[in-house]
Every structure is written in structure tokens, then in C-alpha cells.
């Protein structure tokens, strides 16, 4: 029996989700492979070259966050390029880590033990440009998946070509690899073009770095021009930008105090939170509850700082009187923090709501004032009008209806007029 084109079954839509999660699995498989290479490096007497240690945990968290958010976005919205770019970022980081450990083992720990170690070293030394390229395009295409305007097409082409030019220049150039790699050249080096390749590589690297800054500036332009849902989506990115300021402050403080763990932890945690904000913006998750999320985040952050400072102050103050090793100092500080928790949280939350969640603060005040007046109101018509006005002011609906239920003695047979809704329309 002939099958007409109209009778053909529709193509399955499972393959984008399957491909996205297959790429996620591939990115996650890099962990056991790198762990195995680290084990080989330790057995070869080079524990200084391992990569999966306690310092790398925040960055591993960032890698898992980027790859997972990318898989979720790509599987749910396969036409949106940011999901695939997040997956590409995760895969590029994994492949770079594998290339580094493979090259260290084949060139430093056991020279000649594995093939193509020099090729892996060249890629591992230059692969960082892929991270910057992916981040630049992620910021440039968030949240709509398209460029801010058609006039950005030429810049997108330049930003896409720059990392490719840098990789070619690194592969064909004569530059020596930097430590911890041994001072070797690329096996594909082309000495006749050493000068032009070096200039092209430097220029391409500068353009790639500039592309990240330009992409961040494009978000500001989008926010100024956006309306409606897009503006709500970009507010997630504004939250990420606010967290970036906090991360930079913590990193700077850690660098001044020479605390590498603080620097690594702060930068890694922020890099893990950034994909979450991007995914929430694209998938439109809780767009209209962002004010509440921001206010809660700020409130509990300030509460942690205040109570932590108070705890430290009580411990230091009583420690001077009772001695630093006294258990009474810790007990008194703990009780003081526990007693101050609720009052402090309430006052900080009110202060934050007044500044960052003004609509909720005004709505709470309006409802509180109406509740106070409700105890003294006996006029049904005035109460109805006031109730509808409060609902309109706090919730801002397009239409409001109020149905009044008849009293029991009226429903038992006493004549009354039919109950009708009181309606305000806007």
C-alpha cells in the first residue's frame, strides 16, 4: 500500500534530548579518566602534577553545573544555542584536563610511555581560549538565543574566528610551551611563518578576551531596551552580576591575605552559580518571584555577617575576662546568637524589603492597615469597596469579583434579594 507524504509519521523529537544527555555523560566521563591519570602520576613519583585535589573541588563543581544546566536547557529547548554552548564549555574543560594529564604523564613522568603526548601538550597549553570563547557567546546570546540586533553579526563572526585563529597559530607556531610543560615546540611547527603566526595569535587572543567584555556590555544594553518577559529574564543576569561583585571582593580579600583556598573557593562557587542563573533566565524559572529571591538572599547574607560578627565579638570580649579556653565563653556566645536570631532576622528582612522588594513591603503594610480597620468597620458597602481596593492595590488583577454568601436565616426561607457579585474591571 502506498504511503502518501501526509500519512508519514512525524519525526521523533527525542534525539536532541538524547544528544544533550549523551554529551553530558561524555563530559562526566572525563572525571574518572583524569582520576586514573592522576593515579598514574602519583605512582610515577610526580604527585605535584595531579589536578584532582582539594583545591580543584570548586572548579569541578562549576564544571558539573555548566554541563548539567546545558543538558537541561538543550533537552528542553534544543533550538536555543546557549544550552549547547554550556555543554561545549563543560566538554572543553574536561578535554583540556585530560590533555594536560596525558601530556604530563607522557612527557614528564614517563617520557615516551604513551603516543602523541606532544600533540596533547600543544592542545592543553592553548585550550583555555575555548573557555573564553564559550563564555563570550553564552553572555552574548542570553537570554533570547539571538544577537541583540542584526548589527552584531559582524562582531559575532570575528569573535568566532578569533579562537580558531589562535589554535591554528599555536599548532603551527614555533613558540616554546610554558611550564609545567617541558620546553618543547609543537610537532606541527612551521618556522617559515613564525612571525605572522605569532602576530595573528596575539591579536586573536586579544579579540577573544575583548569578546567576553563586549558580551557582558551587551547584557546591559539588552536590559535597558528590554520590556516584559525579556526584562524579567535579564534580572536573573543582574543577580548574577551582583554576585560577581561579591565574588570579586572575596577574591581580592583572599589575595591580600595570601589565602589561596579563599580565592579558589570564591571564584569556583561563583562560576558554579553563573550557569544556574543563565538556565533560570532561559527556562523562565520563577521570573516574577525574583524580588523575593533577591531579598531573601541579601537578608540571610547580612544576617550571617551580623551574627557571625556578634559571635566573634562575644567570644573575644568574654575571652579577655574568662580566658580563651573557657567553655562558658562558647556557651554564652551561642546563647546570645540564638536569642538574637529572630529579632535580627526580622529587622534585617524589613530593611531589605524596603529597599529591594518595595512592592511586597507596601503590600504588607496595606494589608496590615486594612486588618486594623476591619475590626471597626460595620458598613457592608464601605467594607466591600475597601476590600476590593486593597486587592487591587496589592495584587493588581485585571478583574475583581466579590460574592457575598447569604446568612443562614435568610437561606431558611426569609425573603431576600438575590446575591449578586460586586465587580470592578480594569
Structure description:
- The protein is mainly α.
- The chain is built from 14 helices and 2 strands; from the N terminus they run H-H-H-H-H-H-H-H-H-H-H-H-H-E-H-E.
- Helix content is 72%, strand content 2%.
- It has a two-stranded antiparallel sheet with strand order 1-2.
- Helix 5 (128-141) packs parallel to helix 7 (194-225) and helix 11 packs across helix 12 (358-374).
- The protein is globular and about 95 Å long.
- Mean pLDDT is 79; it is low at 1-11 and 414-420.
Number of strands: 2
Enumerate how many helices there are, as a single number: 14
Instruction: Give a short account of the largest sheet.
Output: 2 strands, antiparallel
Strand order of the largest sheet: 1-2
Question: Radius of gyration over alpha carbons?
Answer: 30 Å
Q: Give the rounded overall mean pLDDT.
A: 79
* Beta-strand content: under 5%
Distance between the termini: 60 Å
Give the SSE string.
HHHHHHHHHHHHHEHE
Poorly predicted runs: 1-11, 414-420
How would the global form be characterised? globular
What structural class should be given to the helix and strand makeup?
mainly alpha
User: What helical percentage do the residues reach?
Assistant: over 70%
Topology (SSEs and partners):
Layout: H1 14-43, H2 57-76, H3 81-109, H4 117-126, H5 128-141, H6 153-172, H7 194-225, H8 228-256, H9 260-282, H10 290-322, H11 327-356, H12 358-374, H13 380-395, E1 399-402, H14 408-411, E2 422-425
Antiparallel strand pairs: 1-2
Helix pairs in contact: 1-2, 1-3, 2-3, 2-9, 3-4, 3-5, 5-6, 5-7, 6-7, 7-8, 8-9, 10-11, 11-12, 12-13
Amino acid at each position: 500500500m502506498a504511503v502518501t507524504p501526509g500519512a508519514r509519521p512525524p519525526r521523533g523529537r527525542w534525539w536532541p534530548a538524547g544528544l544533550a544527555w549523551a554529551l553530558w555523560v561524555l563530559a562526566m566521563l572525563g572525571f574518572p579518566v583524569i582520576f586514573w591519570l592522576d593515579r598514574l602520576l602519583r605512582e610515577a613519583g610526580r604527585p605535584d602534577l595531579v589536578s584532582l585535589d582539594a583545591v580543584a573541588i570548586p572548579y569541578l563543581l562549576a564544571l558539573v553545573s555548566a554541563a548539567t544546566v546545558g543538558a537541561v536547557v538543550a533537552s528542553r529547548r534544543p533550538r536555543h544555542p546557549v544550552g549547547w554552548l554550556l555543554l561545549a564549555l563543560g566538554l572543553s574543560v574536561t578535554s583540556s584536563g585530560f590533555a594536560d594529564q596525558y601530556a604530563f604523564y607522557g612527557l614528564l613522568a614517563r617520557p615516551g610511555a604513551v603516543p602523541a603526548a606532544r600533540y596533547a601538550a600543544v592542545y592543553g597549553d592553548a585550550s583555555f581560549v575555548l573557555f573564553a570563547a564559550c563564555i563570550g557567546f553564552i553572555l552574548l546570546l542570553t537570554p533570547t538565543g539571538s544577537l541583540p540586533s542584526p548589527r552584531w553579526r559582524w562582531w559575532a563572526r570575528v569573535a568566532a574566528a578569533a579562537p580558531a585563529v589562535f589554535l591554528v597559530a599555536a599548532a603551527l607556531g614555533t613558540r616554546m610551551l610554558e611550564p609545567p610543560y617541558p620546553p618543547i615546540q609543537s610537532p606541527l611547527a612551521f618556522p617559515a611563518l613564525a612571525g605572522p603566526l605569532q602576530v595573528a595569535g596575539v591579536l586573536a587572543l586579544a579579540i577573544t578576551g575583548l569578546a567576553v567584555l563586549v558580551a557582558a556590555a551587551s547584557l546591559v544594553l539588552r536590559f535597558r531596551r528590554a520590556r516584559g518577559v525579556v526584562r524579567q529574564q535579564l534580572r536573573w543576569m543582574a543577580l548574577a552580576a551582583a554576585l560577581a561583585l561579591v565574588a570579586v571582593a572575596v577574591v581580592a580579600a583572599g589575595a591580600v591575605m595570601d589565602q589561596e583556598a579563599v580565592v579558589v573557593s570564591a571564584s569556583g562557587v561563583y562560576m558554579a552559580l553563573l550557569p544556574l542563573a543563565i538556565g533560570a533566565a532561559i527556562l523562565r524559572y520563577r521570573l516574577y518571584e525574583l524580588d523575593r529571591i533577591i531579598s531573601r538572599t541579601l537578608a540571610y547574607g547580612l544576617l550571617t555577617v551580623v551574627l557571625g560578627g556578634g559571635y566573634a565579638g562575644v567570644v573575644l570580649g568574654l575571652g579577655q575576662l574568662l580566658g580563651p579556653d573557657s567553655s562558658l565563653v562558647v556557651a554564652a556566645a551561642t546563647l546570645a546568637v540564638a536569642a538574637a536570631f529572630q529579632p535580627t532576622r526580622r529587622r534585617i528582612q524589613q530593611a531589605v524589603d524596603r529597599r529591594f522588594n518595595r512592592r511586597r513591603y507596601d503590600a504588607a503594610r496595606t494589608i496590615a492597615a486594612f486588618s486594623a480597620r476591619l475590626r471597626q468597620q460595620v458598613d457592608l458597602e464601605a467594607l466591600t469597596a475597601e476590600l476590593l481596593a486593597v486587592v487591587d492595590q496589592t495584587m493588581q488583577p485585571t478583574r475583581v469579583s466579590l460574592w457575598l454568601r447569604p446568612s443562614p436565616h435568610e437561606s431558611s426561607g426569609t425573603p431576600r434579594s438575590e446575591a449578586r457579585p460586586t465587580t470592578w474591571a480594569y
